[in-house]
Known about the structure:
By secondary structure, the protein is α+β, with helices and mostly antiparallel strands. It contains 14 helices and 24 strands.
Amino acid sequence: MVNNMNNTSNTSTSSYSYLQYKNKVTGLASGMDIDSLMEKLMKAESAQMEKLQQQKQKYEWKRDAYREVNTSLSAFEKGIFDNYGLSKNWAAKNVTSTSTAISATANSNAAGNLTITEATVATAGQKVSSGATLADLGFSATNGTFTYKIDGQEKSIAYSKTDTFDSLAKKLNATGDFEVTVTNGSNGATINTKIKKDIEATGNNATFLNKLGLTDGTQSVSGKLAFTESTTMSELGLTDGGEFTIKAINDQGKYTEKTIKYSATDKISDVMSRINGSGVGVTALAANGKLSLSANSTGTGAEGSIKISADGNKLFEKLGLADATGKVAEGTNGSMVVNGVKMESTSNKYNVSGYTVNVTNNIAATDAPAKISSTTETKTIVDKVKEFITTYNGLIEDLNKRVSQKKNLSYQPLTDAQKAELKDDEIKKWEDKAKEGLLKSDATLNKVLSDMRSTLSNYGSGSEDMLAKLGITTSKTWTDNGKLELDEDKLTKALEEDSNIVSRIFVGDKENNREGIIASLRTTAQTAVKNIEKTAGKASSAEDSYTLGKNLKDVNTKIDDWKDRLKGIEERYWKQFAAMEAAIQKANSQSSIFTQ
């Protein structure tokens, strides 16, 4: 039977049986091997069902072959879009900037030179609050002025009870007459103050110094922190919990807004963590007796970089992070003067004439201007075009192999009985041969190939932007079956004359409302995928939703009918053999009587 494989190993005795019942008749009376006779009879009876099973196998193989093609087509159309269908794919530009304050990249459409004579960096809004204030040291007045004399000269410092230790330290140090440092800890803040020169302070001014602990010129005094990151809402007097809305400017210069709730038992650190996890675009920190809110994006807005609203408990006022209007922090917009034109942005990124410009440092009008220019990296683009041609030719070669491969009629799908006589590797070799030519001269695949060639040859008709201008042509060798060839010298020359020509042809020409060759090829491939799915479906398709699925459903019904029919035929044969055995047994019994 199966002898075309040049088997190198002995086939094992077949364990396959055509019988659905075993040993229903022993054959003792007749002396015949009934099982062997039944196997031969049922093998002959099963021939028609085996043909149906072979046809089913062919349908399944053909369905799978079509699906392999669709997998290749889908990978092709997605791959060419990702790798060759976007402007950034062809942005092979070498960009130079004469200033470290400016960096830039260029897309395929970048043209000309840019001169930036002024630039300011956009900043993000930030507010830092310390828990210890002068009120913690007993300054009950809303505000006041500390006046003192030094070397006969009178000086004064304005202060408020809402001043933090940090802000007061800055005011004192600014005079040059004091050395002040502030240390924040988990249990309190310490202000260390030293008078550098002898000063004269009388009356209430002396009280100011006394409250700072300055009785002998050098002293340290600790003020109880108003809060720490571990302080709970109830400790701040918010025994019922509450909520607030926080908004922050985003990369597009618009606001992102989130509402955050808290309970009386929540700590300040819990609230800060919720801000960080909300996605509002704010980084919140609580550590070492200080709180900080920073916008993640630069720029300003009508309500500041960060704004708190619907804060009925005035939590953020209590924390010293927001004013009475809820404003937390204000960033600044950036600007630059490029080729004499002033531009503003909430970010430090600008899109100008195909360039993406990033401002990293300020440039004053008196500074040397930043000059940006670009040159096309021709070799990079040529190599990318070669990659595309290799990808396209790989698909064409696969499709042509499928439609041109001859069928091997000597190799039909193996029946279950035949498989039982072979080893696994032998079965695989046989089936590989049997699968050859499944899509020979297939009309659907031939149409795909024709449409691909037509898409390429017709692209840019009536314009100068044809593939031939890039040195891309169809091979004249008939055995190549429509593969593409590239004249690198012609492509290089085309790029030197027009650096945007490849991007315009591959991605599209918006000015002339013409889509790129990649978009056209994608459409062709996607249409082919849909057409093939009508014939072969996909893994998730219902069997009766595509042509081969309907064929499989029909042949399965016929196979099931045959199985039922064969069961009845086998039962009939068993009954006939049983009757024969009974008759022989009876005859033998009668014969033995006459011989006595």
